[in-house]
Specification:
The chain is an alpha/beta fold. The protein is built from seven helices and 15 strands. Helix 1 crosses helix 2 and helix 3 crosses helix 7. It starts with a strand and ends with a helix.
Length: 253
Amino acid sequence: MQILGVDIGGTGIKGALVDTARGQLLGEPWQLATPRPATPENLARALTQLVEHFAWRGPIGCGFPATVHHGVVFTACNIDPAWVNTDAATLFRQATGCRCHLLNDADAAGLAEMRFGQGQGQNGVVMLLTLGTGIGSAVFVGGTLHPNTELGQLMLDGEIAELRCAYAALAREQLDWPVWGARVNRFLQRLEYLFNPDLFILGGGASAQLPRFQAQLHTRAPVVAARSLNQAGILGAALHAAEQEAGATAPPA
């Protein structure tokens, strides 16, 4: 099945057509800036632009930077507060004319890595962290996703963890890689104390830079870069939509 996968982030919105059976993007992603302010109406218009760019009329999988339950957004850490309690699936369907299946953006990246990336064959506790504008998280136990964890919102040393440890903090505070890497290590060690994962997978904008700060990471669990790097969100969003579409058309048991 081909699906338009979309990854909505705090700074950019990118999408690509995805072959969900093979786990491959069909061409280069197309990207536009996340509008300011990132209100429901403005994001719906931006998504419509992306859909029109691909001349797409089929289902859409959409990774979204918030907790999402049955298409409704319940948090707004890196987007406009007007999103809280918004039925995003309905809003996006009305704007684009396409069925839209939403999930948390880090959960989308996690699905991609568990199906086609570093998480394949991992049956223990796997934690994917997206280090970008903020910090997203996806937690899998025995290959099953526990959605909407948002572990970047944990308190760490008296501050919200993502404010100190997100990739954006590196430039915002003009940190060097060892200093920032030590912060990331502190966060990973806190998660290790709480959850005892068997594997950490780092995604988001920092994933390609892992060799520059890996020497500062000291955890029991291995730490690896996401195989799909910064495209995992697009792939995982499309996988989620394909699963939802298949479930909707499956005959009753």
